[in-house]
Design brief:
- The protein has 330 residues and is an alpha/beta fold.
- The radius of gyration is 19 Å and the shape is globular.
- The protein contains 11 helices and 12 strands.
- The relative contact order is 0.14.
- It has a 7-stranded parallel sheet with strand order 3-2-1-4-5-6-10, with helices on both faces. Strands 7-9-11 form a 3-stranded mixed sheet. The chain has a two-stranded parallel ribbon with strand order 8-12.
- Helix 1 crosses helix 6, helix 2 crosses helix 3 and helix 7 packs across helix 11.
- The protein is 43% helix and 16% strand.
Length: 330
């Protein structure tokens, strides 16, 4: 059985690839010509170059496959060209799903995000029923993922697309090569570049548990259903304390007001635009999102899929060690 994984060279995608190989799948990986392939080194994978926005290359990649994991996404909290994000996340998803329908793919697992859900205003954990609307989505990443998931759901209902949707929370662990926004927080924390914290919270999960959740969704998931693949709910202060303990230093003790963080974000974004130095360390959208605790429950995935997650300390420790071993730390 040949299984296609889009975004296979990335953090989550490469973890899915490893999980599928262990489960006996013949994996085909769709990657961009410019992709960093370190995460796929020495793996028995059929690498196909292409681009999600190019329907011809997507058709070539899907041809002959029985299963499809669409894990590719443009994940940035700040973009100089928002249209590029919508092309990648919405048009790219459309191309992949249409080819899945044309080729008679038996089962699709679509990687969405808890970003498409509406976090609780009082800090309680949200579940799959915490549906937001487009107007609630902060920033182009959330809006593009919301539109992409909406597209998948519509194709399930109108075209019998055999898709199961999974919504990872905030993955951590090894092989975060880019690194992700969360990976940058880890790096900044262990490098002493976070002097203060804001009052916010995240749901942290080991990337290998997220990958296993994808495998379980393929085997046991119900078409059209959404499953949150999460771990432990932690305040940012708790996350930084855990990282400080792993790294052997003191955590930041000063809590920064959100208003001050917003000012820092404005300066950070302005400096990035002037210097052309890429994504700023602090973004205005990130600060807006931080005003709510993004806590989630994986109860549905546990009950329906048999999903479970390991202690968050393991994921954070493995992330720190991987960054150190691979020369990311100052």
């Amino acid at each position: 059985m040949t299984t296609l994984v889009t975004g296979a060279s990335g953090f989550v995608g490469s973890a899915i690839v490893r999980c599928l190989i262990d489960d006996g799948h013949d994996v085909r990986a769709l990657v961009r010509p410019t992709s960093d392939l370190r995460n796929l080194e020495n793996l028995p994978v059929d690498v196909v170059e292409g681009d999600l926005t190019d329907s011809v290359s997507v058709k070539k990649a899907v041809n002959g496959c029985q299963f499809l994991f669409h894990a590719a996404a443009d994940y940035r909290l700040w973009v100089p060209d928002p249209e590029a994000m919508y092309r990648n996340n919405v048009r790219g998803t459309r191309n992949v799903m249409f080819e899945a329908l044309r080729n008679g793919i038996r089962r699709v697992v679509y990687t969405s995000s808890v970003a498409t859900l509406a976090p609780s205003a009082n800090g309680n954990s949200c579940n799959e029923g915490s549906c937001g609307c487009l107007e609630d989505m902060i920033g182009h990443y959330k809006r593009s993922k919301f539109l992409a998931e909406e597209l998948v759901q519509r194709l399930v209902q109108t075209c019998d697309l055999p898709a199961v949707i999974v919504s990872p929370s905030t993955p951590v662990g090894p092989r975060d090569i880019k690194p992700t926004a969360t990976g940058r927080i880890i790096l900044d924390a262990i490098s002493g570049r976070i002097p203060a914290y804001v009052d916010t919270g995240l749901n942290i999960v080991h990337v290998h548990d997220v990958a296993e959740g994808h495998r379980l969704a393929l085997q046991k998931g119900t078409v059209g259903e959404r499953y949150i693949l999460g771990g432990e709910n932690m305040s940012l202060r708790e996350i930084l304390k855990e990282l400080a303990a792993i790294n052997g230093h003191s955590p930041p003790r000063f809590r920064m007001p959100h208003s001050a963080a917003a000012l820092v974000a404005c300066v950070s974004e302005a400096c990035s635009k002037i210097s052309g130095g890429g994504e700023p360390r602090v973004t205005r959208d990130g600060v807006k999102m931080a005003r709510k605790h993004m806590f989630f429950s994986s109860g549905k995935a546990r009950q329906d899929l048999g999903y479970h997650f390991r202690p968050v300390k393991e994921g954070l420790s493995e992330a720190v060690n991987w960054f150190r071993d691979n020369g990311y730390c100052d």
